[in-house]
Amino acid sequence: MFDSALLLAAAFVAGALNAVAGGGSFLTLPALVFTGVPPVMANATGTVALLPGYIAGAWGFREDTAPPPGLSMRLLVVLSLIGGAAGAAALLVTPDTTFRRVVPWLLLAATALFAFGPWLRARLAGGHPSTTKATVGVLAVALYGGYFNGGLGILLLALFGLLGQTQLHAMNGLKNWVSALLTAIAVAIYTAGGVVQWPQALMMMAAATAGGWGGARVARRIPAPWLRAGIVITGLVMAGLFFWRQ
User: Fold this and answer.
1) Collapsing DSSP states into helix, strand and coil, what is residue 9?
2) What is the DSSP letter of 214?
3) What is the structure's pLDDT at 171?
């Protein structure tokens, strides 16, 4: 009973955080691991739980979404699917013991990306790299997202800024579409690999969707710096707990 309540609460808050600022994976992955789900399965299951939120966000920004300079929407879709599939396949062949050692470092990296996201986007904005560099960048970020979802939104926004995207709504819409695409193909591969705990995934999926709709209204009333600080602290605490459990 306690495990179910913990997973529902983590998924609800994660859905709200992803709708407003990102960082939902900082809660879903640790919650699943702490309730006894092996790390690789926990990562896959948590990703499944957050997929509806990405789809809803992409649909909400559908009228504003536009590809960054140098890339067509078709190429962006292909790169997202290829990278997401490759990352998911890499996760399937990662032993739990190895992933457990890697998780705290991934959480720290994702937390740093989130903390320095605004500065990073400002530093990278306005450039116009070649199509080849843009292709490699999107593929690399999609591969990361298929393997580990934490901090994905910040990476994508920073990348789109680097590619010369300047309209925030277009960047957010594109971020959600790419996240939805690479997560969808990753979920298909996780499912084929048998690493999704479906009872937990379905329960958390419902809670995350509710959190995205209702919890975001509450979260928007919190000043942005406070919200960002809370997510960063959460990420650091979760990383510390994983280090401690090793």
Assistant:
1) helix
2) I
3) 77
